[in-house]
Amino acid sequence: MRCSVRRLLYTGIIVSAAIARLHAGESSIKTQWVEYTSGADTVKAFLAKPDMEGPFPAVILIHEWYGLNEWIQDNAKEFAQRGYTALAIDLYRGKVATSSDEAHELMRGLPEDRVVKDLRAAFNVLRERDDVYPDRIGTIGWCMGGGYALAAATAVEGLAAAVVCYGRILSEPEEIKKITCPVLGIFGEKDRGIPAASVKTFERQAQQLDKNVRVAVYPNAGHAFMNPNNKGGYNEQTAAAAWQRIFAFFDSKLQPKK
Predict the structure, then answer these.
(1) CB atoms within 10 A of CB 169
(2) 59, 87 in Cβ contact below 8 A?
(3) Closest CA to 189 of 164, 223, 150
(4) H-helix or E-strand spanning residue 19
(5) Would you say the C-alpha torsion 191, 196, 197, 202 has a positive or negative sign?
(6) 218-238 residue pLDDT tens
(7) In sequence order, what DSSP letters do the residues of 198-237 get, joined into one string?
(8) Which residues of the chain have a pLDDT value below 50?
């Protein structure tokens, strides 16, 4: 028993040191395209992980209406650099939009029940990996994906945290009651599609129902302000502040306590 305890303590020290090196940008990561089964479908996903032994906490990334493009893949790599196993899933089955009109068509044709099924399957895939803590899996999404990240917080049993970046919110108390994990919302004050007042109302309703929901509304920021490809609305300084808040949230909810 004493040997086992010493071994566990030693392993914990090694993993903590590895995470520290990752945070300092001193370690490399591994990336690969993987596939997993969701019902009768095969779903493609981009996996990024620390290039060392785990286990690590994990994050499921849910893309915007444009699809699983390079920006989402870059975000997965950043999570891996910070000590997470990151799985960016492809809800569009290989399609990536190059214009807002095409993105709107793809989003409109996406079955919502299939998305929830894909998210549950992705969660189960991560939970079964040897390099993942099964009880430390979160999710993050942007725009369309942000709404689905909140949906995951109500529908994926065992999810430990969710970040909603300017995604669709909930308004009905019966739906808000279904939230089962801590939620962080990231929104822009000038988002015309998701008014700041509605966001604050959602936060207030959730807290009245004893849900761990906090939102941050950034002034002078509109929709998709975190995406550098949004030439008319990207705000580098505000995006950096949002990322800092997001990583602090995930670290507090998913990283093992030192």
Answers:
(1) 24
(2) yes
(3) 223
(4) helix 2-23
(5) positive
(6) 999 999 999 999 998 999 999
(7) HHHHHHHHHHHTT--EEEEEETT--TTTT-TT-TTT--HH
(8) 1-26
Q: Give the C-alpha separation, 147 to 142, whole Å.
A: 8
Tell me how crowded residue 241 is: count the other CB atoms within 10 A of its CB: 15
Nearest to 52 by CA among 70, 75, 26, 34: 26
Residue 52 has which token pair?
């060392």
Instruction: Measure the CA–CA gap between 111 and 105, rounded to whole angstroms.
Output: 12
pTM beyond 0.85 = yes
Judging by DSSP bridges, how do beta strands 161-165 and 132-142 pair with one another?
Answer: parallel
Name the 3-class secondary structure at 194: coil
Q: Give helix 144-155 / helix 112-127 axis angle, nearest 10°.
A: 70
- pLDDT (0 to 100) of residue 67: 98
State residue 222 phi and psi, 5-degree precision. Answer: -105, -160
Q: Residue 140 corresponds to which tokens in the numbers above? A: 């993050």
In the chain, helix, strand, coil percent, each to 5? 40, 25, 35
Please report the beta strands in 56-123, taking only residues with DSSP state E, as ranges in sequence order.
Answer: 56-62, 85-89
